[in-house]
């Protein structure tokens, strides 16, 4: 329902651009293009807010989840972005199991991966590595990138809704990391990062280790 008026706005501005192009001068066309791109952005914002609402409400049933499987699903979700950026991606050698909710974990990994692919300096090939380490009954998943990095005083802020540090050069709504944190906390896990400007970032997630799920 929220999205319907938006569809109408962008539909009519597209119609004007297509069918009345001859009667429009350069400035009118520019204004219409701005209407179209603003309504696209608002649509993205609505979709992300709806996803945030779902992450907060969704019934979460914890079970044994294979890290390898959740990572494969995250790679699939980001396939187009991986192709576009020609990124080099390393997957973990160890493949532990964690106590989690599979869709929530894959979504979290996909959001982190999508950011790692996006926040690189222009012209730089993204190099991303996921590692998995089990210790004292917990598993730590670390996603390291070679991106622009984040100064230490901003590490807490970026997990809040709508907070963006690099708005100018990179598209986004500032909701992705809030969805990740909400999901990880609801699974009883922890999330954090180490990062500094110009030195890349490493986001980590910690979850309880689980025994391998029995084959059905
Ligand atoms: P979005 O990606 O839509 O901007 P997020 O909530 O996912 O929103 O991220 C919030 C902000 O955190 C981003 O706008 C960016 O400034 C910073 N950020 C997130 N991931 C990274 C990363 N891997 N490298 C550098 N900055 C990042």
Topology summary:
Elements: H1 4-19, H2 26-57, E1 63-66, H3 67-77, H4 79-85, E2 88-90, E3 97-100, H5 102-118, E4 127-135, E5 138-144, H6 176-186, E6 190-195, E7 201-208
Parallel strand pairs: 2-4
Antiparallel strand pairs: 1-3, 4-5, 5-7, 6-7
Helix pairs in contact: 1-2, 2-6, 3-5, 5-6
The structure holds adenosine-5'-diphosphate (ADP).
Textual characterization of the structure:
This protein is 44% helix and 19% strand. It has helices at 4-19, 26-57, 67-77, 79-85, 102-118, 176-186; strands at 63-66, 88-90, 97-100, 127-135, 138-144, 190-195, 201-208. It has a five-stranded mixed beta sheet, with helices on one face. The protein has a two-stranded antiparallel sheet with strand order 1-3. Helix 3 (67-77) packs across helix 5 (102-118). It starts with a helix and ends in an 8-residue tail after the last strand. Adenosine-5'-diphosphate binds at residues 115-116, 119, 145, 147-150, 158, 163-166, 172-178, 201. Adenosine-5'-diphosphate (ADP) binds next to helix 5 and helix 6.
